[in-house]
User: Fold this.
Amino acid sequence: MANSSHIRSAFDADLEGVKAQVAKMGGLVEKALLSAAEALETRDVALAAQIRKDDAAIDALEEMIQSECARIIALRTPIATDLRTVLTIMRLAGGLERSGDYAKNLAKRTIVLADMPAINGASAAIKRMTRSVVAMLSKALNAYFAEDAVLAEEVRQSDIEIDQMYNSIFREFLTHMMEDPRNITACMHLHFIAKNIERVGDHATGIAEQVIYLVTGSLPDDERAKGPDATAQK
Assistant:
């Protein structure tokens, strides 16, 4: 019995260490996204370059988390709920790493856009969308740490708002391009930025769904509401 208690204590200690790394990684990703939106709005090339450089820390944390989870599985041989917990962490880390990549991509395009004429209202709209996505991501991580399936479901359903924001921005870009063909290149870059941010919302939704899986033992079996895809409209 004492040995069983020791194993449980060791597993819990390992888990807390990995959770701390997830929290740190989440904070870095949120900061990168907000800073990237700020760099776009202010045309701050130095800040954009720093965001690209800082992505290495996010990648390193993801590798560390995946490695530690693999070690826990090999050493502790978790089963049932414990295994589900470790697998959830691995998937969360993967989603955060991809979100960090999107922030880096935003920064890369910001450097290119700095040499082009500004598109009126575009950077402010993207900044608002980014803030909404970061709030959604933060809420998803809070749901994970609290193991709150209800909060996770709120995140899951809120993704439609991000889709609607993206569609609205896309239509604005189309208007700018039709009004002046000289805006096409800049608007295409801005469109890819908006699409990347929308995909971060998808990753936040994925994290929320993993929380539901962690708490209930199954993924949501209903289709999440999605806004109409503006890029698919004629």
Observations:
- The mean pLDDT is 91.
- The chain has six helices and no strands.
